[in-house]
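Title: Prediction job returns without error message
Component: structure pipeline
Severity: low
Priority: P3
Assignee: unassigned

Description:
Job completed but the reporter wants confirmation the result is attached to the right record. Sequence as submitted:
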Amino acid sequence: MTSHPNGEVLQAQYEIRPDPHEITSTSKDEAPDYEPHPSEAISVAPGYQAIVDSITRLYSGICADREQGEKDMQVYAADAVYDDTWSYCDTRYKIAGQWYGIPGAMAKSQTLATQIISCKSIELGSGDQGTQLAFKLRQEYTPRIVHFTKAVDSLVTLTLDKDDKVRYHKDMWNENDYRHAGLGKVMKTLNGDQLTKITRPPSGL
């Protein structure tokens, strides 16, 4: 069995804790503006745009096509973290468990808009050079069981290693960053650890 570093090791090396007000140019007296404004997006190199495109396809349920989903999952390194309101995953295979679950859980998941707001070189916790790639995302979800449609605005921050592989994927729905302690973290990790048993992503991931 392949050995993977645990999430704490990956956090120390790759986690970015963005200042939501600074990165979105929002006053401290206001809630951060996570609404995408595509006309204001910065231009990035084609390789970075391709990473964003793959990520948004994953949000939009591309894993219904298992082969294409597996291709888009290659933007992640084998040892990577996905961190959002509901889930914490610390390998690419566990991350795939989340994305391969969308077609079953959602009647529809659609990316309405994106806005890339940051792409800059950073020094990683390992001492290597990496890249911070951040974008605003508006994603519209329609659950299968309860047919209502809800659009969610979020701030997605990706940490890329020196090989431009995603090592940390953070999706923030409000200005509060995620704590890595307490019952909430336990539940998020449990979700990340167990969902692959239900969604069964390709074993090669």
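Comment from assignee: result matches the submitted record. The two ends are 13 Å apart (CA to CA).
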